[in-house]
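Help wanted!
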Amino acid sequence: MGQSHAVKRNKQIAKTIAFGALSVAMYTILFMNSAVVMTYFTKGFVYAALPILTAFAFSFVHGTFAGNVWSLLGIEAAQKRPETRPAAQPRPAQRKRPRPRVYLNT
Amino acid sequence: MHDIGLQGLQFIELTWLTAAFLFVVGFIGGLVSGFIGSGGAFVLTPGMMSLGVPATVAVASNMCHKFPKAMVGAYKRWRYGQVDLKLGVVMAASATIGVQIGIKMQEYILAKWGEAGSNLYVSVSFVVVLVTVGGYVFYDAWKISRSGSQEQSSKLADWLQSIHLPPMIHFKTANITMSLWFTIPVGLATGMLAATIAVGGFVGVPGMIYVVGATGLMSSATELVIAFLMGLGGSVKWALNGMIDIRLTLIILAGSLFGVQLGAIGTTYVKDHLIKVVMGTIMLMVAVSRGMAIPTYLTKLELISMSEGTTGFLMTCSFVSMCLALLVGAVIILGAMWKAKREERRGNLVEEKELQHAEQAI
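Answered by r_m:
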């Protein structure tokens, strides 16, 4: 069990390093070429896809790296299920109140 | 459309200090967002403007960092079973209409009373909404904390859920069945507030708690879905105008992706009512901060007279107290996490000792 835990941890370290390196590389490339990047990314119209896709790509790579860093530091979610409230009871059907009737014997 | 982006656009020169400031604010803002579903934007936009970034570029770049951050946070909290996707999508759809109404109102006020009038309207909206809603959220959290009871759904939510007005929608994860007509006003108000003060979550989360009837934990997680969908729509609009400074966006994102995941993890450690404590505290502090800015706008509109030195001082105090609001929220979250983690460790130690005693006895 201890060995499998060590293997799992080594895999996580490797994954963190790989995503960290990829994240650093992406940031370096972007900032080294910031003049070209800013020219194209602010052109608008069809070029509008560039900043949106870049934000998605960075969030995937850097987000995975950040998540793995917290895991390696031992900061992980506690096993707690969120509570849900019991569903509200339906209102009882409205019944017609019996009308008072008066019978006169004439 | 293409030309709008290029007209007089000035992108700032980045320094290490600027980058460090954006990274740190991004991290703290992300932490608060991951925990209460919103926040951070109200400091980042004025923060960027104070660095010399034009207002439109600051708003656009901030929004472009918001949607990937919210996406990562929503995914993380969805894995913990805290997100009701259907509720998020329904709310986001009505919030999109709310944003359009909010923009029209802003445009009308800007045309009628100019920039100072528009700023005054934003500040007054900030103060009125945040004092009313934030005050109630804080009072509710204080009540739960004092009595030590479980979070109860509001009477209003119970009453609305009992009314059968088609089309009825069932929100599976939140375990709520409600008429669509009662969710729409909450979404509209969220959108209108997002268009006015850029933080729709300050109405969206309390709205989901007290009107729809979801728990604080689920509402704050679902708010991240709304923030993602609305942020994506807004970012596409800004990108079409070429207003996004991707360098600023990515620096903030570098910090906020760490923060948002830490905030999401934090929700699994603390008591549920702490979300309300953090939200109420931040809202009330931001209300005070915006209140400090009101005399400046009243002076600009020549409704009162004040020296330039005094208005300048009040504006600085306003910005500092806004940063402080975010910082206080982050400290409460981290403190509660630290405490919960320590108790968990202590509990594990006790369990281990008991196990050892039992083994020795055998």
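OP: Thanks! One thing I noticed: The radius of gyration of chain A is 31 Å.
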